[in-house]
Amino acid sequence: MKRSTLIMLVLMNCLFAPSFLLAQDKQKATPEERAASLTDWMKSKLQLTAEQEPKVKEINLKYAQNNEALKTAPGSKREKMKTLKADEASRDSELKAILTPEQYKIYQDSKAELKQKIKEKRKG
Questions:
Q1: What is the distance between the alpha carbons of residues 82 and 12, in angstroms, rounded to a whole number?
Q2: Helical packing angle, 2-13 and 77-98, nearest 10°
Q3: What CA–CA distance (Å, rounded) separates 119 from 112?
Q4: Does the pTM exceed 0.70?
Q5: Which of 24, 57, 97, 113 has a 20 to 30 A CA-CA distance from 46?
Q6: 89-102 pLDDT per residue, tens
Q7: Per-residue three-class SS string for 57-112
Q8: 3-state DSSP assignment of residue 17
Q9: 72 pLDDT more than 80
């Protein structure tokens, strides 16, 4: 159960990656590539402004690098899972400060949809 939750959180942190990135081996994608891909998706889906885009890109890169470092960091899976959850909350908080309420709602709805798809895949 803990392993599946950890996997779900890792997937959530890579969330919203375009299909071409999903088709690639995720282990080979660099944090910079994952951040750029996520930013491109957000730019399209959320209609980011020219002012928002670099800020969102910086946030995405920061957390992609954190997640990459966490993969090789010492510690139990439980500790890493707590770190991932805390990072997700921090990222959401930072994004909420940049996005409009409408954009943030779309982001949260898409995130919830992805969580549901992951749960369905695990069940069946």
A1: 14
A2: 30
A3: 11
A4: yes
A5: 24
A6: 999 999 999 999 99
A7: HHHHHHHHHHHHHHHHCCCCHHHHHHHHHHHHHHHHHHHHHHCCHHHHHHHHHHHH
A8: coil
A9: yes
